[in-house]
């Protein structure tokens, strides 16, 4: 099975490491996971390297996860994305949908997280195709 | 301590391994946890005393084991073949924590966290070992601060154990376990 390359953008290092560890002990296919604590750095990575999935936190210092996803959409519109947040609400879920991202609100189990990642990289969850708006929420 | 105190804030920045002791759910941060293995033979080492219940063989290395049920003041329960041992690095020591059942690994949201003093009696609520309480599937969990899991005397016992273990292990012929923990 082809190795799946995943980028995690998360400013909390212990959360980033836990997500990374969960994905690096695969139940199925192999995954290569990179972490970026800053959205701006992640954008540079995306310009150099293609990913099978890009996961971002919503609230981060500097560029928000929402703005990051808008730029990702411009750079690589076909790459699946996932928005995770500790401040889940119907508004944020709606924002994720408009940004074309899968959505996961804390609290969540790492087992569920890995299952959702697997579904996305296997193409079982289609990327939303709704148009992007610049009046979204976040940060 | 209020809801914005260091405990709950720190809790939000961690992923938590949740486990059950009796009917109570607890959590420990993922970072100090190395591996979870099924029960292996625990060789009692009464020379060392509390909190060390005995020693196991982890890939040829003797590792002290703490019965976490007894450590938190619950009645001792029989160890079964599938009773998990949480191999951790806590208080500068590698040790195994025996728990009843490992439940999950959770990433928590700020809204799920409660300062201990909001719910627990003041003496318990101010205990540094409890970093925060958290609403979890299955009820309210106690999130433990590994830096305060053991008191000074217990830390001394763990240090003594670390110094004595190689010698005691050789004398006691600690058997190798299975499922990755043993030699």
Read across the widest sheet of chain B, the strand sequence of neighbours is: 8-1-2-11-10-9
Largest sheet of chain B: 6 strands, mixed
Shape of chain B: globular
CATH homologous superfamily placement of chain B? CheA-289, Domain 4
- Main interface by residue count: A-B, 20 and 20 residues
Would you tell me the overall average pLDDT of chain A? 87
CATH architecture type of chain B? Beta Barrel
Q: Care to count the β-strands of chain B?
A: 11
Distance between the termini of chain B: 46 Å
Number of domains of chain B: 1
Tell me, briefly, the overall form of chain A.
globular
Helix fraction of chain A, binned, reads 25-40%
| Distance between the ends of chain A | 38 Å
- C-alpha Rg of chain A (nearest Å): 14 Å
Describe the structure.
The complex is a heterodimer of chains A (139) and B (183). Chain A has 139 residues and is an alpha/beta fold. Chain A is built from five helices and six strands. In chain A, α4 links the parallel β4 and β5. With 183 residues, chain B is an alpha+beta fold. Chain B has one domain: OB fold (Dihydrolipoamide Acetyltransferase, E2P) (Beta Barrel), CATH 2.40.50. Chain B has a six-stranded mixed beta sheet. A five-stranded mixed beta sheet of chain B has the order 3-6-7-5-4. The chains are: A alpha/beta (139), B alpha+beta (183). Chains A and B meet through α1, β6 and α5 of A and β8 and β10 of B.
Helices and strands in order:
The complex is a heterodimer of chains A (139) and B (183).
Chain A: E1 4-9, H1 13-24, E2 31-36, H2 39-48, E3 53-57, H3 65-75, E4 81-85, H4 90-98, E5 101-105, E6 108-109, H5 110-121
Parallel strand pairs in A: 1-2, 1-3, 3-4, 4-5
Chain B: H1 6-12, E1 15-21, E2 24-29, E3 33-38, E4 52-58, E5 61-67, H2 68-71, E6 84-90, E7 93-98, E8 101-107, E9 113-114, H3 122-125, E10 130-136, E11 139-144, H4 152-172
Parallel strand pairs in B: 2-11, 5-7
Antiparallel strand pairs in B: 1-2, 1-8, 3-6, 4-5, 6-7, 9-10, 10-11
């Amino acid at each position: 099975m082809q190795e799946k390359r995943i980028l995690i953008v998360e400013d909390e290092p212990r959360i980033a490491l836990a997500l990374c560890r969960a994905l690096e002990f695969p139940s199925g296919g192999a995954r290569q996971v990179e972490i970026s604590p800053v959205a701006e750095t992640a954008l540079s990575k995306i310009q150099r390297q293609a990913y099978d999935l890009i996961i971002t936190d919503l609230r981060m210092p500097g560029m928000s996860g929402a703005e990051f996803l808008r730029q990702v959409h411009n750079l690589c519109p076909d790459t699946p994305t996932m928005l995770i947040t500790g401040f889940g609400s119907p508004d944020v879920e709606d924002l994720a949908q408009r940004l074309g991202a899968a959505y996961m609100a804390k609290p969540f189990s790492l087992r569920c997280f890995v299952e959702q990642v697997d579904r996305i990289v296997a193409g079982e969850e289609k990327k939303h195709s709704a148009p992007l708006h610049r009046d979204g929420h976040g940060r | 301590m209020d809801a914005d105190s260091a405990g709950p804030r720190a809790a939000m920045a961690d992923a938590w391994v949740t486990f059950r002791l009796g009917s109570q759910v607890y959590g420990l941060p993922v970072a100090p946890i190395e591996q979870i293995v099924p029960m292996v033979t625990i060789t009692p080492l009464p020379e060392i005393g509390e909190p060390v219940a005995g020693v196991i063989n982890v890939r040829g290395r003797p590792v002290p084991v703490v019965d976490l049920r007894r450590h938190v003041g619950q009645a001792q329960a029989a160890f079964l073949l599938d009773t998990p041992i949480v191999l951790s690095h806590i208080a500068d020591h590698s040790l195994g924590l025996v728990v009843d059942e490992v439940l999950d690994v959770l990433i928590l949201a700020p809204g799920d966290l409660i300062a201990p003093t909001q719910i627990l009696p003041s003496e318990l609520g101010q205990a540094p070992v409890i970093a925060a309480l958290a609403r979890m599937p299955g009820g309210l969990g106690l999130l433990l601060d590994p830096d305060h899991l053991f008191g000074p005397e217990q830390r001394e016992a763990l240090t003594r154990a670390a110094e004595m273990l190689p010698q005691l292990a050789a004398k006691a012929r600690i058997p190798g376990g299975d499922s990755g923990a043993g030699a």
